[in-house]
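Just curious: can you write a single protein's sequence together with how it folds?
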Amino acid sequence: MMTIKVLLPLMTATVLCGGSALVEARQPQTPVVQPQWRVFTAPDRRFTVLMPGQPERDTQIQKTYMGEINLEMFVAEPPNQEVAYLVVYNDFPYNYGQMAKPQTILNNARDMALKTTQSNLVSQRHIRSSNGHPGKEIEYVNTGGKITRSRMYVADGRLYQVMAITSKKQQPTLARTITGYLNSFHLVLQK
C-alpha cells in the first residue's frame, strides 16, 4: 500500500515581534530515504525502463473479446510514497496483431483501462516510442481519486503499457519524477 512521502525539510522560523525574538520550530520529521533508480531490463530483453528498485513480477490472465491473454506485469512501489510504477505488456494472437491497426489497438486499450478502473479521462495525445512505434499517452482519475499517467505502445505484436499511479496529494510533488520515468522507457527492436 502506498504511504505518504514527507518532502518538507526541517524548518525553523524566527519572528521578531515587539523587540523580542520568538522562535517557532517544527517537529523534526523522519528523513525520507529516496529509492535508488536503476535500469530494469525485461527478462525477454524487449524493453528497458528506469525503476525505483527491483520491480516485482506478476502474471495475470485477462479475458478480452479476443479470448484470454496473459498480462505480464512489473511493479515497483517505493516506501513512504503514494505511488506505483508499472510496466504491463501482453502479446496478441497472431491474427489480431497482424490485422488490427495500431490506433485501433491503442483506443481499445484506453477504453478498457477506463472501464475496468471506473475512471474519467483527463487527457490523451498520440505519441511515438523513441524508435518510432505508435503510441498514446493518457491521464485518467478513478473514483477513489487516484491519478494514472500511462503511455501505451504497439510493437511487434505486443501492447506495452507504462504507468504511474499516484494520489492527488502526491501528484504535484512527483510530476517531474513520473515524467522522467515515462521518458525512460525504451523498446528494444527485435532482429
Observations:
- The longest helix spans residues 102-117.
- Residues 35 and 52 are 5 Å apart (CA to CA).
